[in-house]
Design brief:
The chain is α+β, with helices and mostly antiparallel strands and 195 residues long. The protein is 45% helix and 28% strand. The chain has a 6-stranded antiparallel beta barrel with strand order 1-2-3-6-5-4. Strand 2 and strand 3 form a beta hairpin. The longest helix is centred in the C-terminal third of the chain and has 30 residues. The protein starts with a helix and ends with a helix.
Length: 195
């Protein structure tokens, strides 16, 4: 991915739980999504539901054009299923077992601090969790940047590769939600300091 293309994505700094494993290009070719992590059956529940939402969005729009009441009812059922899924997903994500840290994230990739170095273009399997929404993602990535730090760690920049559209949509939504939350907090802080 070109530098200009990476810069077109919205970026946000946020605390997430992350686990990663170096893998080969052959492993990526064999499996459409990473299989290197042990996860519960519920780990990918919210991202799988997002897949179904993406498939059904155009149908819901067509229904809304013909019958607003039916569309409103279906949206209500969607929110109900989403609430149940989030409650179930909480049980499938064990946050205490994996590293939680601040990352700089966009839908195209992320940058984070790591105690070990990698080769440039090293392929990685990534397990990424947003604690507040309990969304878990399994992604492939490639190392595109390494910056040594004074503490002996490295700033690692990665680019997501072979990402399913549903994951891209989920990441984009997470970034937008986090940006709007950050702006709200900034407004509240500036209003409080001007009082």
């Amino acid at each position: 991915m070109q530098e200009q293309e990476r810069r077109k994505f919205f970026r946000i700094d946020h605390q997430v739980s992350i686990e990663l494993k170096p893998i080969s290009a052959e492993e990526i070719a064999k499996n459409p999504t990473p299989v290197q992590f042990e996860v519960s059956p519920y780990f990918l529940l919210l991202s799988q539901l997002q897949d179904l939402d993406t498939e059904g969005d155009h149908l819901l729009r067509k229904i809304a054009e013909k019958d607003a009441n039916t569309a409103a009812f279906l949206q209500l059922m969607h929110r109900k299923i989403d609430t149940i899924a989030k409650a179930v997903a909480v049980n499938g994500i064990e946050l205490e077992q994996i590293l939680s840290q601040e990352i700089n994230l966009s839908e195209g990739g992320m940058m984070f601090e790591y105690p070990e170095t990698f080769d440039m273009d090293q392929h990685l399997a990534i397990k990424l969790i947003f604690p507040e929404t309990c969304i878990g993602l399994l992604l492939y990535a490639k190392v595109c940047r390494l910056i040594p730090m004074s503490n002996g760690h490295y700033k690692v920049g990665i680019e997501f590769i072979r990402m399913p559209e549903s994951c891209r949509v989920l990441l984009a939504r997470q970034v937008m939600l986090l940006q709007s939350h950050q702006r709200r907090l900034e407004r509240q802080n500036s209003e409080q300091s001007s009082d």
